[in-house]
Amino acid sequence: ADTINLAVIGGDGIGPEVVAEGLKVLDAVSDAKVERTEYDLGARRWHATGETLPDSVLEELRGHDAILLGAIGDPSVPSGVLERQLLLRIRFELDHHVNLRPAKLFPGVASPLDVARVAPDGIDLVVVREGTEGPYTGNGGALRVGTPNELATEVSVNTRFGAERVVRDAFARAQARERKKLTLLHKHNVLSYAGHLWRRTVEEVGAEFPDVSHDYAHIDAAMIYLATDPGRFDVIVTDNLFGDIVTDLAAAVTGGIGLAASGNINPDRSVPSMFEPVHGSAPDIAGQGKADPTATILSVAMLLQHLGRDEESARVEAAVAADLAERGSAVRSTTQIGDAIAARV
Ligand code: IPM
Ligand code: MN
């Protein structure tokens, strides 16, 4: 049988707990031999050594087929240190430009929306968030800090190259789906330069996909649509920061952050892509067996699909769907949920 060389970063808080369940399901479903290497990265290492992501570790990560990440972040570490030097550094260095975040309301899952009224045909959308540009590039600075004349900039970087590759990826994903619809979210009435670049890119790339329809919504109006008519969305493409925000709301309306999976994807399979739940490290419930591992397990399904193991991926998603359909209000522990889903694959 083939082998999946997997780098595992449990990370902080509930990260290691949910990752353990993801690995349990991966072992249960896959014919491949899963060779894993665990990397101790996150708050513990930073406190102990001052290191976030040593260059040697980054080089080792490159040698894997994929990376499974739990969560990064801890209140004991200054804000931004682990986020920028560890999580974003991996995304940037491995050129994870397609940040893929599906949001699907599974049968039996409660939504805060009155779904029967606002989404009678269900919610099944995927956000293709650009992952390497926008205001995330760290292109900014501050002057006269702490004075009444303080000034701060945080420049959003948008290249034609960066927009075009993610827009083309999003069109291809839309083409493979039933509704074949793509929506660009931006704010071109105010952010004219970047907005114009993105709109033109969608128009031009869209011509290569005549069977895919496309439209546009301002990001603020899109928040209203997500709450009042989420069924209108199929594939959403947007920049890094808008994508960060829209995916939290998309998760909220499809059962919450405990179910939201993501892939930080470099379509070049010779570079490892990284799969992680959208949620954070939740230090308040760490170590108590309360975390829902479902988002991590669905991230494992995305990992399998990315590696071309579509059948195994579909089995994981079906097992999650079956578990969610029967879940009801019974409180189960992290391992109980992982066991139940592993037993179904
Ligand atoms: C996410 C997170 C990260 C992001 C943070 C932790 C850097 O919010 O994965 O959505 O903004 O991308
Ligand atoms: Mn986020």
Brief synopsis:
Its cofactor is Mg(2+); Mn(2+). This protein is an alpha/beta fold and 345 residues long.
Describe this structure in words.
The protein is α/β, with parallel strands linked by helices. Helices cover 42% and strands 20% of the residues. It has helices at 15-29, 43-49, 55-62, 81-93, 115-118, 160-175, 192-206, 219-228, 240-253, 294-306, 310-327, 334-344, and strands at residues 3-11, 33-38, 66-71, 98-104, 124-130, 140-143, 151-154, 181-186, 213-218, 235-238, 261-265, 273-277. The strands form 2 sheets. A 10-stranded mixed β-sheet has the order 2-1-3-12-11-4-5-10-8-9, with helices on both faces. β8, α7 (192-206) and β9 (213-218) form a beta-alpha-beta unit. The protein is globular, with a radius of gyration of 20 Å. The model has no long low-confidence stretch (mean pLDDT 97). The structure holds 3-isopropylmalic acid (IPM) and manganese (II) ion (MN). Residues 83, 87-88, 244, 278 line the site of 3-isopropylmalic acid.
